[in-house]
């Protein structure tokens, strides 16, 4: 699937919208991204995750690692498409941890899968877990890179869609100054 077709599919499913949006942080942004909309039906889930898996096969991973909650569904579908096991991290006391008996052994090559990447913080946290357990992050796959390709990861990143999403404090928002209506999507 080419980038234009993917972009259209994401837009048709309501996974990406361009406009003037209110974020829970109180900041305003020009892109709304909700990758969960891609997983409302299994055919779309298999299509987008299958494409991400195809593009990430080059990393030759032994296991897929995702972060709960947003990364679990894409991670599961990518792992299934690649025929790999899925491990996932969960938040405990504000930090990602690997639990539930997932056994990441030294030398394992790990494909980290996320729904969306902005700052890369959760990817960096998962990479630290992988390294601490003696594994190697082979690469990162995500559905949407909202950083415009600028997330400081120091890891190879494959994204289906790349957006340069802008974020503004409410009092400094140029879209507010232009009088564009503010949408509050949940």
Q: Helix share of residues?
A: 25-40%
Largest sheet: 6 strands, mixed
Q: Biggest sheet, strands in spatial order?
A: 5-4-3-6-7-8
- Report the span from N to C terminus: 29 Å
Order of helices and strands: HEEHEHEEEHEEEH
> What's the β-strand tally?
9
- Strand content of the residues, in percent? 25-35%
Structural class from helices and strands? Answer: alpha/beta
What is the number of helical segments per DSSP (H or I, 4+ residues)?
A: 5
Low-confidence segments: none
Shape: globular
Please state the average pLDDT score.
93
Rg, alpha carbons: 17 Å
Secondary structure topology:
Layout: H1 3-12, E1 16-22, E2 28-33, H2 42-56, E3 63-67, H3 72-82, E4 86-92, E5 95-98, E6 109-117, H4 121-132, E7 136-145, E8 157-162, E9 167-168, H5 174-177
Parallel strand pairs: 3-4, 3-6, 6-7, 7-8
Antiparallel strand pairs: 1-2, 2-9, 4-5
Describe this structure in words.
28% of the residues lie in helices and 30% in strands. The radius of gyration is 17 Å and the shape is globular. It is an alpha/beta fold and 186 residues long. Strand 4 (86-92) and strand 5 (95-98) form a beta hairpin. Helix 2 crosses helix 3. The mean pLDDT is 93. The strands form two sheets. The chain has a six-stranded mixed β-sheet, with helices on both faces. A three-stranded antiparallel β-sheet has the order 1-2-9.
